[in-house]
TrEMBL record:
Pfam families found in the cross-reference section: GerE (PF00196), Response_reg (PF00072)
Residues covered by the Response regulatory domain: 3-119
PANTHER family cross-referenced by the UniProt entry: TWO-COMPONENT RESPONSE REGULATOR
UniProt keyword terms in alphabetical order: DNA-binding, Phosphoprotein
Protein known as: Response regulator transcription factor
BP terms from Gene Ontology: phosphorelay signal transduction system; regulation of DNA-templated transcription
Domain HTH luxR-type: 143-208
Modified residues (4-aspartylphosphate): D54
Signal peptide positions on this chain: none
GO molecular function, one term: DNA binding
Length: 217
């Protein structure tokens, strides 16, 4: 079950989103808000998996909402709603911490698909925006990659796996969701060219053993 909250100031579209969420048994509706200000006050009680947020709200924008709420909604992923996919606001929202977006006017099936995709670790967005985001982050990602070509966070996850911790225990220790741990593991397997946890840990332990040997020679 994927829990969803909605932040949308346009009543007609807000009601449409409510119907779209309620019609799918995979989703459960947590909270519905007509402004960012209201959501900032109450969404911490919902703790939804996914927050559907309109970018252009009346007062405080959806971008500002994402930026201000990220610290206390650490396990929530933000899916922005917008009328224009090339809008500069979409790019700014993604830079602020949103994980994807849907266009207003998307079909019910497209909205469902975007929510499921995001919950599974994807990032629903157009190729145009994706290219801009990749261009922005590629340099930083290369800088953060350490031994075995893994990022610092991936190394943390792999190290904790090597100590026998379960996904839930790792999520608690790193203050991330179990689903995020699972996605990190998928990326680790892909980067290490292995098929499962056992192969990944063998490669990790072999690397550490060789590094220790070389450090004494």
């Amino acid at each position: 079950m994927i829990s969803v909250s909605i932040v949308e100031d346009h009543e007609q579209y807000r009601n449409l989103l409510v119907k779209v969420i309620k019609v799918n048994s995979l989703f459960t509706l947590k909270g519905v808000y007509s402004s960012a200000e209201e959501a900032l006050q109450k969404m911490h009680l919902d703790k939804p998996d996914i927050a559907l947020v309109d970018i252009k709200l009346q007062k405080l924008s959806g971008i500002d909402f994402v930026r201000q709420s990220k610290s206390y909604l650490a396990f929530t992923q933000f899916l922005m709603c917008t009328s224009y996919q090339n809008d500069e606001n979409v790019f700014n929202a993604l830079k602020s911490g949103a994980s994807g977006y849907i266009l207003k006017g998307s079909s019910m099936e497209e909205i469902h698909s975007a929510i499921i995709d995001l919950s599974d670790g994807g990032a629903p967005m157009s190729p145009y925006i994706a290219k801009r985001v990749i261009g922005l982050l590629s340099g930083k990602q290369h800088e953060k990659q350490g031994k075995l070509g893994l990022t610092e966070r991936e190394l943390e996850v792999l190290s904790l796996l090597s100590k026998g911790l379960l996904y839930k225990e790792i999520s608690d220790q790193l203050s991330i969701s179990p689903n995020t741990v699972k996605n990190h593991c998928k990326n680790i397997y892909k980067r290490l060219h292995v098929q499962n946890k056992v192969e990944a840990l063998n490669k990790f332990n072999h690397y550490n053993m060789n590094t220790s040997v070389y450090s004494f020679t």
